Fold:
Amino acid sequence: MKSLPKQSQGFTLVEISIVVMILAVLFTGLFSVFYTANKIARKGSNKKGANRKDILYAMENIRTTLTRAYFIDNQRRVLFVGKQEGAPGTRNDRIVFATANPNAEDEGQSSIREVSFYLKPMPDSKMEGMHYLIRREDEMIDNFPTQGGVEHILIENVKSFQLKYSERGDKWVDDWNSRNTKKIPRLIRFEIISLVGSSFVKYESLAHPGILFK
Structure:
């Protein structure tokens, strides 16, 4: 004798509708939380993370360029001059020197070029004392080492740019002129104070030039 199959209990249309409504409310709430969190994260990233990334890129740009500093004592057009300006916390130092171009052969350009780093006022800044950090680059070493070339903005909203120079690391000076010293420093410490979000942050790094010193 065959037994009748058991009838499976299913959900009624009303129960399914209630479940769908509950899930819809839950998914709407989760999506709102996710969207708000994502928006805040992207806003914070654009305001702080991207700026920090730009500053670190600028620091590495300065460090690697200083590391490739090129100097020959008997050539007056090839020099290394660093000059301090401003007070602590609001320094506006300037440096000009010759540096090797590692991609010269591939680009068909001069293997040695002239580079300067300095600050330039931001005329449209809402906060007083803000500057652009400039990299000026001239493809030719000429008789006018502080003029010519093309200016590139590395970062904005810089309050202070400071450099210090040393031969052995035991004594540091604020100015350097290779026309007087007949050599370039072996260590260069540089500092950037920049606006990150709503506060000022100080970044420091150390460069070791002299690989191409003759």
Summary: The CA atoms of residues 46 and 197 lie 9 Å apart. Confidence is low (pLDDT under 50) at residues 27-50.
